[in-house]
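Researcher: Here's the sequence for the chain we discussed earlier.
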Amino acid sequence: MDETKQPGIRLVQVFLEKATFKHRPGFLDLPAEKPADVRELLVALETGLTSDGSAALIRTRVRTKPKTEAVYEFDVTMTALLEREQTAPNMPLDNYVSLAGWTLVFPFIREAIANITGRGRFGPVWLSPFNLKAQTGTRRKQKA
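Model: Thanks. This is the structure I predict for it:
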């Protein structure tokens, strides 16, 4: 691999796979100025690679922890599809996915959550920077 060149990987698609949102019970009894300080989150990270290594899936799910007293409850999943460029592949797709794949999807899910929650009574939730190395992920090999 030539570290002075681009990886030769193409982002095919990023899409919102799932989104659920609701206010917590009794939310109308809370003052409208209450900040949407949602910190108790569960994050799931998943990757998949075709058997020939030519395409990959990266999925990130962020949801509020059940039974917390957050003003919002949400469950959002974003998925990205990647493929190795045929003309100039410089980095194996599995290397890219394991090194930087999840960081590719995180800004998209951050924006989706801010957009969805921004339409709620208490304003948007912005996901804080996230330590992906501390997160346990799941790798699944997909069949071509």
